[in-house]
């Protein structure tokens, strides 16, 4: 391509950017007006079901262009996040530290312009949202290799907050160190579950015999590995970058679909989107057949169960259950009417995935 050809293309791009800027500003003006209506009526700013409907509509409209679904989603989620900040700037508390996978999940949904507060414990995140220091909280609920996160279930049981969205993140670990040679590494820092998830890698490189030091987070592991000679960290790409720790190997996890599901919690209920999931906690009498009877009712009402996990909270056995549909659906209402006293409703939210 000639210099002239390149200049012409760039001139065209500049024109399109000018139009985009004008259109986005026009959009933000309307968003501001929506914000004023919401402020008058006390309506929730974040409407995940509306955002999902917009993305679905745009994806189905998009025939033949170069943008795929993932690109449309990434573009518009960022626009929505900026929109919400124009309606009302809001804080997001996440399970830290900075650079944690939960931080990544939070940024995937709330974009670059939101204000984030890193909190050291899951309970702390619930507290921030309950006391209204943050409008939203982001916490992990389960990982495909390590199962359910007990602290999150305990807090969902004891706090009166709602799950308003789920976020699924592919979890990749990196092996990072200031050492050039793997043989020079004498100790490895990481979070306990990350060691478990990278067992094959450690064995293949003869790193399973050296000292493994579990610390609270993979970000802290990166920080420690930077300051100590002959050490390494198993951490996220973002964590290594945060401390400028050289990455020796990427994607060292044993299974390639290592995923974590996160919940976004807040203080309001979502309207139905047409493709929702509902989560509940159920406490049933400890007598034979009660669980089977309870689950049979879902079958009779044609409700598709997607997850059931038993869990002990303060010595009492409870069940964490996910199923398709919204709390306002007629068949789901029937279950709540009948078993309301045994059920704690945790939230109905846009379904991102069947199961992890
Ligand atoms: C503008 C609104 O508020 C938020 C921003 C949206 C947007 O930018 O389109 C959509 C849903 C809400 O999360 C709205 O509710 O319509």
Automatic annotation (TrEMBL):
GO terms for biological process: chorismate metabolic process; L-phenylalanine biosynthetic process. One of its GO terms (cellular component) is cytoplasm. The record marks 260 as: Essential for prephenate dehydratase activity. It catalyses: chorismate = prephenate; prephenate + H(+) = 3-phenylpyruvate + CO2 + H2O. It comes from the Bacteria. SUPFAM superfamilies: ACT-like, Chorismate mutase II, Periplasmic binding protein-like II. GO terms for molecular function: chorismate mutase activity; prephenate dehydratase activity. The keyword Amino-acid biosynthesis applies. Pfam families: ACT (PF01842), CM_2 (PF01817), PDT (PF00800). The keyword Transmembrane does not apply. Residues 1-91 form the Chorismate mutase domain. Pathway: Metabolic intermediate biosynthesis; prephenate biosynthesis; prephenate from chorismate: step 1/1; Amino-acid biosynthesis; L-phenylalanine biosynthesis; phenylpyruvate from prephenate: step 1/1. It is found in: Cytoplasm. Residues 6-33 form a coiled coil. Its EC number is 4.2.1.51, 5.4.99.5. Residues 91-267 form the Prephenate dehydratase domain. Catalyzes the Claisen rearrangement of chorismate to prephenate and the decarboxylation/dehydration of prephenate to phenylpyruvate. This is Bifunctional chorismate mutase/prephenate dehydratase. It comes from Halarcobacter anaerophilus.
């Amino acid at each position: 391509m000639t210099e002239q050809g390149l200049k012409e293309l760039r001139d065209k791009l500049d024109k399109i950017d000018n139009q985009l800027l004008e259109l986005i500003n026009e959009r933000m003006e309307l968003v501001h007006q929506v914000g004023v209506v919401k402020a008058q009526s006390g309506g929730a700013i974040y409407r995940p079901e509306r955002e999902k409907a917009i993305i679905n509509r745009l994806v189905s409209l998009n025939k033949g262009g170069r943008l795929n679904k993932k690109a449309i989603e990434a573009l518009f989620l960022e626009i929505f996040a900026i929109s919400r900040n124009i309606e009302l700037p809001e804080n997001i508390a996440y399970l830290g530290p900075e650079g944690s996978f939960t931080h990544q999940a939070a940024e995937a949904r709330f974009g670059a312009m939101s204000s984030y507060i890193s909190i050291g414990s899951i309970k702390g995140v619930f507290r921030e949202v309950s006391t209204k220091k943050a409008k939203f909280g982001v916490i992990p609920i389960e990982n495909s290799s390590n199962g359910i996160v007990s602290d999150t279930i305990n807090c969902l049981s004891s706090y009166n907050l709602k799950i308003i969205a789920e976020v699924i993140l592919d979890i990749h670990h990196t092996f990072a160190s200031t050492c050039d040679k793997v043989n020079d590494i004498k100790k490895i820092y990481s979070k306990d579950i990350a060691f478990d998830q990278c067992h094959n890698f450690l064995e293949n490189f003869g790193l399973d015999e050296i000292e493994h030091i579990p610390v609270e987070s993979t970000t802290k592991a990166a920080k420690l590995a930077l300051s100590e000679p002959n050490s390494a960290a198993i951490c996220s790409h973002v964590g290594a970058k945060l401390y400028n720790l050289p990455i020796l190997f990427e994607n060292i996890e044993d299974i390639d679909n290592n995923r974590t599901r996160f919940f976004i919690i807040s203080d309001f209920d979502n309207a139905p989107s047409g493709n929702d999931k509902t989560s509940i906690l159920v406490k049933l009498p400890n007598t034979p057949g009660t669980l089977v009877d309870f689950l049979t009712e879902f079958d009779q009402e044609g409700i598709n169960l997607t997850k059931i996990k038993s869990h002990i909270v303060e010595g009492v056995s409870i069940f964490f259950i996910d199923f398709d549909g919204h709390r306002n659906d007629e068949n789901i209402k029937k279950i709540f009417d009948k078993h309301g006293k045994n059920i704690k409703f945790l939230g109905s939210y846009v379904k991102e995935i069947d199961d992890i």
